[in-house]
Amino acid sequence: MSITSQIFKQKSQNQSQSEIILQKKVIDDNFSYIYHHIQSEIRLKNKPIHEQIKYLQDDIQNLDKQNNNITQEEKKYKKSRLKIQLMSVLRQSEHVKSIIIPEINQRIEKDNTNIMLYVLKEAISRDQNREFLLTDGIHSCGFDSIIGVYGQDQQCLRFRTKEVEFKQLQLYDKLRDEYLFDFKEKVAKIYQIESSEVDILDITEGSTIISFKIRSKIDLENDKKSIEFLEKVCNGNVEFYNYFVTAQDKKRTEIGLELNDFNSKFNMTWDHLPEFEERGPFNHRYNYYFPKGCYGFGLNITKYGQDDNWIKMNGNQDEWRILFHGTSNSNVESIIKASLKPGTRQAYTNDDCIDEYGRTVKVGNGIYFCDNFMTCIKDGYANPIKVHEKNFSTIFMSRVNPKKIRQSLQMKEKHYFIVNNSEDVRPYRILMYEVN
């Protein structure tokens, strides 16, 4: 008898007919997404490049329209996977081009779009181990994955096991569904939660890898005992995994952007303005420090919908705060090189802070911001890139949901802020600054 048969034999013998029917319904509800993903992967392999591009684009667009039979966590994970797949396929087509160093006779100034694109490309390559390519027309993956890469909603747990072969899970629906159902039940029991709070995001090759998230548990990295117990009970290894940042130094994922991601209507400078002014709704007032000395390249923000109260500057209740973010995050080098294992994370994760409801909570992992762009440069979050004889830094000017900002006392001293989830961040301008 095979190992995989032994896994379920005893459980099947002890189940009543009603329990089996109920379990089948739960399995159907939970894993139709996994089944669809496996079938998509199989169909995709047999298509020519131009059909793969259209198929992946359609899948991304359809994903945005889906409201049923898929959780938000599954949607975020699948979208990241599809974008990475799309860029990998585009690399093999005529739809992308590399960004090269500007010619020596070009005007090397901070308001030059070509210079900005080159500096941004080099910064992302250095800080995120990702390749930045220009695509044509609709073949764009946008800026969200650059700044949002460090959000804790862009990471999950990965369980790697040799107990069951990937090919078996791929080919046999009943075996796959029962194995995943059993895995969810074990995870739920270990963490004392409902199994519905465990999202199975994917199964992939490399032994067998199950990507999953636990919705109600945020600070899993500090719960090493439960992780070790899970590894023992399920007979495998658990690691922390970021959707976009790859742990292998030599392997890079690609980011695709196109010129329609920019909107020159919102290009601007701030040299004629004072050092700062007070902004925000009455219950979230703050000092906005103008990015004097920078040139700002406006981004296309139409994807955020018709309601633009978040970006207005009139103090309305839905106005989001302006903060600045470099292309790197806290401890980014160790994050990339250490495969996102516990203990290599961010500096202020375990600090106490007050959340939007007045409760004392941990800061947690997330996206780092400063309220002054110069802090990004001075503290190494936007180290300059050399272009011929000049040095430039790129910084994202972003609006963030003020209710979701976290800041410990230690962070206040440095003017640092953290936003846990990428959905609470909206980049709307890229700044270029010449560093003397």
From TrEMBL:
What start-end ranges are recorded for coiled-coil regions in this protein? Answer: 53-83
Source organism, top-level taxon: Eukaryota
Keywords per UniProt: Coiled coil
PANTHER family assigned to the protein according to its UniProt record, in alphabetical order: UBIQUITIN-LIKE DOMAIN-CONTAINING PROTEIN (PTHR36649)
What this protein is called in its record is Poly [ADP-ribose] polymerase
What species is given as this protein's source? Paramecium primaurelia
